[in-house]
Amino acid sequence: MTTSPTLRLDGIGIGTLSAVSLSVAAGDIHCLSGPSGSGKSRLLRAVADLEPHAGQVWLGEVAQSSLPAHAWRARVMLVPAESQWWADSVGEHLPAFPAAEDLAALGFEASVLGWQVSRLSSGEKQRLALLRAIAQGPSALLLDEPTANLDDATTRRVEAWLMGHARQRGWPVLWVAHDPGQIARVASRHWRIDGTELRAEEVAPWR
Ligand SMILES: Nc1ncnc2c1ncn2[C@@H]1O[C@H](COP(=O)(O)OP(=O)(O)OP(=O)(O)O)[C@@H](O)[C@H]1O
Fold this sequence. Notes:
single chain, alpha/beta, Rossmann fold, six-stranded mixed β-sheet, four-stranded antiparallel β-sheet, globular, binds adenosine-5'-triphosphate, AAA+_ATPase, ATP-binding cassette domain-containing protein, ATP-binding
């Protein structure tokens, strides 16, 4: 497998969405928007092999259907809007000690690893879910409104951090976003769900 694969959706059908096709190149970020309930999260779940769907997803030369679901999900990593936590402390969810620069970029010190999950705010959970996802060593990222609970300054920091990692590690990223400003800042392409279809939208020319 190549280290910097393209993520390709080929005729994905799920819920009311039919035959969604798009390609996200390595290191590139595409944003996905659309009205509430239009199917953004379900589309990401289909790409992550968490819901049955029509069509095929490719990561480079590897087809989703050729791998067990857990192996696919380890490569094509979904960070859902609401993260799940199963152990008591933050550190128990991480496979290794995170890089100091990643902790700092997300606004944490190393002591966060000893924090109880029950004390985390929504925004802390959201940032730590991102840290946990990248710690698994994915090859592609699916982000469902990853800054929804964050203030403006923190949002900008998280955007810069994600963009830097996507570029450096060659991840294709599919990112659900509602804010046109965010889409203009992070995305090279913008797809909008319109009924049963996905439409390409202009990305702001001043980007
Ligand atoms: N497993 C399922 N089976 C059937 N319908 C579902 C299932 N999961 C979600 N839905 C429905 O599919 C539609 C799309 O849901 P989805 O969560 O993808 O919306 P969304 O575009 O992400 O919305 P929002 O912006 O509000 O988060 C909704 O009407 C939802 O109720």
